[in-house]
Amino acid sequence: MKRYSAFAVAREALSYHTGWGRAWRAPEPKSRYDVVIVGAGGHGLATAYYLGKNFGITNVAVLEKGWLGGGNTGRNTTIIRSNYLQDSSAAIFEKARALYEGLSQDLNYNVMFSPRGCLMLAQTQSEVRGYQRTAHANALQGVQTEWVGPQRVKELVPIINIDGPRYPVLGGLWQARGGTARHDAVAWGYARACSAMGMDIIQQCEVTGVRREGGKVVGVDTSKGAIDCGKLGMVVAGHSGALAEMAGFRLPIESVALQALVSEPIKPCMDVVVMANTVHGYMSQSDKGEMVIGGGTDSFNNYTQRGSFHHIEHTLAALIETFPMVSRLKMLRQWGGIVDMTGDRSPILSKTPVEGIFINCGWGTGGFKAIPGSGWAFAELMAKGHAPLADDFSLDRFTEGRFIDESVAAGVAH
Ligand code: FAD
Ligand code: PYC
């Protein structure tokens, strides 16, 4: 693999940039791997990367039914923050945020991490109490957030209307080192680093069955033939229920569409990320100038990767009260992804009833920010059988009643 650097750009300029080569190989599957990961989204690729980097396990295949990063990883609004309430969540989300800080250097790939700050607005008294409580919890957890009043909100976001008639801005939870990253680049950077370690990333390869013998996984059936494996990681977000069914167990997961949209590009007008969870919308400005806007989940289960139409109108109507300038924007395009929701709005990183099968899912509306931390923890779980950052998120919490309630921190109405 060619190292990317300013020198490499200058060197390649001499040959009209004809010598770069592919960022990752496109191999045919081998008949057996030590580890097979299903799903080449951010979480699957990060898991493979840390299996290699932290545990020296490189006989790994990542199988993807479409194209890598084409699931929710390439469809999200890229918000990164770690301002969760419960200790186990703060630990894994803050690990992820900290890894994002150095990810471009680690992967030798520019993931465009932009710690521009993330502000969650409080527009009701219960949100004020909730976010003040989170700020106190974060102080104890070592996560740097602070409660700010309405005047500070106005300084941070000059285009905001803090005196809205229905929902005035009463303050907010501010995380100065939250922000965004380029979603595709996160997938591409991990893919390139995995490929350089000798791992096979196999696109257009759908897993159609899971083969077991004596309660233990032995391989998978795919659209490119059967592949044997020692361990299997299922990392397929909204399709987790379908994969689990192939392996003979059930998950406490529901799949719903979550959608987003972008406006025409405009001049820079907002240099932080803002989430307005009561009126229900969130917004940031991309490097191209588009306002990136997200709405809520559909209120019924589906697999449409589109989202229902009335949500667009609802999201924009809600945002216009808090950001009047939105009323003058033309919207360019809209899309959706299938998110995997658990009852407590926390993820599942767990062993399963089938020996050798591990599952990483349930990130729901908020897993982009978690990718590096999730990959780090899940790789450790797969390599060693337990992992401090993952253990609280095991499947048995649903039978034991150890819920990790993050329905407020999730920020997106469900
Ligand atoms: P995915 O990226 O969906 O990857 C799973 C992969 O598995 C897919 O590529 C799929 O094709 C593949 N697959 C499925 N079945 C099979 C099979 N049988 N065989 C082979 N491959 C298979 N999170 C944030 O933190 N911040 C945000 O601002 C944010 N905004 C969002 C906005 C929207 C509109 C959406 C939809 C999501 C948002 N999220 C956000 C959530 C975030 O995108 C997801 O939690 C995260 O991307 C999940 O990553 P993943 O790798 O688990 O899943
Ligand atoms: O988890 O921060 C988040 C988020 C924002 C939009 C969708 N998810």
Automatic annotation (TrEMBL):
<dbReference type="GO" id="GO:0000166">
    <property type="term" value="F:nucleotide binding"/>
</dbReference>
<dbReference type="GO" id="GO:0046653">
    <property type="term" value="P:tetrahydrofolate metabolic process"/>
</dbReference>
<keyword id="KW-0963">Cytoplasm</keyword>
<keyword id="KW-0285">Flavoprotein</keyword>
<keyword id="KW-0288">FMN</keyword>
<keyword id="KW-0547">Nucleotide-binding</keyword>
<dbReference type="GO" id="GO:0005737">
    <property type="term" value="C:cytoplasm"/>
</dbReference>
<keyword id="KW-0560">Oxidoreductase</keyword>
<dbReference type="Pfam" id="PF01266">
    <property type="entry name" value="DAO"/>
</dbReference>
<dbReference type="InterPro" id="IPR036188">
    <property type="entry name" value="FAD/NAD-bd_sf"/>
</dbReference>
<dbReference type="GO" id="GO:0008115">
    <property type="term" value="F:sarcosine oxidase activity"/>
</dbReference>
<protein>
    <recommendedName>
        <fullName>Sarcosine oxidase subunit beta</fullName>
        <ecNumber>1.5.3.24</ecNumber>
    </recommendedName>
</protein>
<keyword id="KW-0274">FAD</keyword>
<dbReference type="InterPro" id="IPR006278">
    <property type="entry name" value="SoxB"/>
</dbReference>
<comment type="similarity">
    <text>Belongs to the SoxB family.</text>
</comment>
<feature type="domain" description="Rhodanese">
    <location>
        <begin position="35"/>
        <end position="79"/>
    </location>
</feature>
<dbReference type="InterPro" id="IPR006076">
    <property type="entry name" value="FAD-dep_OxRdtase"/>
</dbReference>
<dbReference type="InterPro" id="IPR001763">
    <property type="entry name" value="Rhodanese-like_dom"/>
</dbReference>
